[in-house]
Amino acid sequence: MSEKIPAEPPVLIPENEIRRRVGELARQVSSDYAAAKELHLIGVLRGCFIFLADLSRLLTVPRQIDFMAIAAYGKNSAPSGAVRLIMDLRTNIAGKHVLIVEDIVDTGNTLEYLMSTLLPRKPATLKTCVLLRKRARLEKDVKIDYLGFDIPDRWVVGYGLDCADGHRALPYIGVVKTD
Ligand code: IMP
Ligand code: MG
Description:
Bound molecules: inosinic acid, magnesium ion
Radius of gyration: 16 Å
């Protein structure tokens, strides 16, 4: 599969457009959480790492950062829907204002799993911030409180997102053919 991936996938969202939108999201989140004592950002590894790094540095509210790692069963390009927890949080989120930071919502299975895992831990609030959404593929009714971009039903890479672990460090969001 990886040998079919071009070295420079065609651009879907250029670097400057990502930077602009992440800045907008950060301003919106900062303003919404201005009254909160502290915001707990939860990054979903591994795809979130660049988005979370950029977003967290632009926020003007006090924040803590923790991570979870989730893996899908089945092939990377054909999510089966089933997900499992690989690494849990290190912090107790009870009574905290929690914002899940995800790279992309495809079927919505991962985000739904995260919500159902974290809600019973009784955070004061639990919201979601997602860079990309493939609206056409959504199967689950998951609430995205902060969304970067709606994108077409294509496999995308770059800015943290991968295809068979490749292209994560690409500075833009590119499109990979998967047919
Ligand atoms: P969902 O559970 O179907 O919503 O899938 C979400 C997860 O699948 C994301 O967190 C990504 O890890 C992965 N994923 C879905 N679509 C893409 C894509 O186009 N590129 C890279 N990863 C993707
Ligand atoms: Mg992800």
